[in-house]
Specification:
- The chain is mainly α.
- It contains 16 helices and no strands.
- The protein has 2 domains: 70 residues; 227 residues, no CATH class.
- The chain is 72% helix and 0% strand.
- Helix 4 runs antiparallel to helix 5 and helix 7 runs antiparallel to helix 10.
- The longest helix has 41 residues.
- It is elongated and about 125 Å long.
- The relative contact order is 0.08.
């Protein structure tokens, strides 16, 4: 005869490796802590990745929803002012007369207080409900609208930031800047070799038997991109109207330059001669540089969490600086004063912004040191390209920027 286990009929137990998620309450400790940090005076460098991902936190701290925070603040101020007026007219003044009159009429504090409570509950509270009640749902509707609008806008910001940084990361991963620069050098060498060969060609040779121009054997026979690499911009471009004008400008510039890059790739894929392909590749590198520059400006505006923003800017600058170095040298050799002059205007900004970025990486960040490790581990290539482009070591650049910032601070104080 079998025996029945004492555990039979008991609810099944979870395996020891499975952890239950904590039950989310209406006023959880995490939500209240996030709200406290959001309205506190903490500097952005002291905040962690959890705050950067929290919509509640970003609603109070993000620069992308400043106008919505203004509407929320005005609604709360109006509600407080409205209730202050109601309290003055329907609570303070009646209560004062009730207490003074009650002391004279009833001859004691206790009867006067009882009479005051009776009047407040029968007259004052209904007046508060009548005149103050409608203001609460109106204010609540404004708060809900502001929060939902902020969540939608921040979602648009995150979508565009994710697509832009991913496209730039893919380009840097394949080092397209260095690839196109090396390809341009090969084209120039082939064009020079063809000219040299033509100069030593026998003059008696009939033109009809002349060899055709050398083709770019390494180029594909055609370029046809069937994929849509800009799904966010294609589907959500109408949402850009909610962002600031400068942010919209940088985002639109990036996508325009990237589309121009694809058009130039199609022209390059038609397999022209080296003489014809070199100018196309030159324009391709120039447009690619402008696209990465716009992407860096867009990322600087869109991403507010400093470790993530710094890491993405390093990735973008790695390709951007490679193109910049080539273009400066190339346009100076061609004596193209227009484009060479435009590029020289950027020199001071690079020599200021890149060392400042390295200074930020070397600074102490307290409990968030681990969040900066990814950015610190991606600086080697950018450092070498900076030193090659500007002829200044990064250590010297950081020292120079430290002195300049100290002088600027001293000048501001004086």
């Amino acid at each position: 005869m079998s025996t029945i286990s004492a555990a039979e009929g008991a609810p099944p137990q979870l395996p020891p490796t499975v952890e239950r998620k904590p039950r989310q309450r209406l006023f959880s400790r995490e939500s209240l802590a996030t709200l406290r940090r959001a309205i506190s005076g903490l500097d952005d460098s002291e905040l962690d990745a959890g705050d950067a991902a929290s919509t509640l936190f970003r609603f109070f701290r993000s620069c992308h929803v400043v106008d919505l925070k203004l509407f929320l603040s005005l609604a709360v101020i109006f509600l407080g002012f409205h209730f202050a007026i109601i309290l003055i007219f329907f609570v303070v003044k009646p209560a004062y007369h009730l207490i003074v009159g009650g002391l004279q009429t009833y001859g004691g504090m206790t009867p006067a207080i009882v009479h005051c409570i009776d009047v407040v509950t029968t007259s004052v509270v209904p007046a508060l409900i009548k005149y103050g009640g409608p203001a609460i749902p109106v204010c609540g509707a404004i708060v809900a609208w502001a929060y939902l609008s902020a969540a939608t806008r921040l979602g648009v910001v995150d979508l565009f930031a994710c697509e832009i940084r991913t496209l730039c990361r893919v380009g840097t991963a394949f080092d397209i800047g260095q690839h196109y620069v090396a390809q341009h050098q090969k084209l120039i060498e082939k064009a020079n070799a063809a000219k040299k060969h033509a100069a030593h060609e026998l003059p008696a040779e009939p033109p009809a038997k002349a060899n055709p121009p050398e083709k770019l054997s390494e180029q594909p026979k055609g370029f046809s991109s069937q994929e849509d690499y800009f799904p966010v911009f294609t589907s959500n471009s109408h949402d850009l109207e909610a962002l600031e004008a400068l942010v919209v400008g940088h985002i639109t510039e990036f996508y325009t330059y990237m589309k121009a890059t694809r058009d130039l790739q199609r022209s390059l894929a038609e397999n022209p001669s080296p003489e014809a392909a070199a100018p196309i590749l030159e324009n391709l590198i120039y447009v690619l540089f402008l696209g990465y520059e716009s992407a860096r400006r867009a990322i600087e505006d869109l991403i507010e969490y400093e470790p993530t923003r710094a890491e993405n800017m390093i990735v973008i600058l790695t390709t951007e600086l490679e193109c910049y170095w080539f273009l400066c040298k190339h346009f100076e050799d061609k004596k193209d004063e227009l484009r060479a002059g435009r590029l020289k205007l950027r020199r001071q900004n690079y020599m200021k912004e890149i060392p400042d970025l390295f200074c930020q990486l070397e600074a102490k960040h307290g409990k968030n040191e681990k969040d900066w490790e990814l950015a610190r581990n991606t600086t080697s290539e950018l450092k070498s390209r900076y030193e090659r482009t500007f002829g200044e070591t990064m250590a010297a650049a950081i020292t120079r920027r430290t002195r300049e910032k100290a002088a600027e601070k001293q000048g501001a104080l004086s």
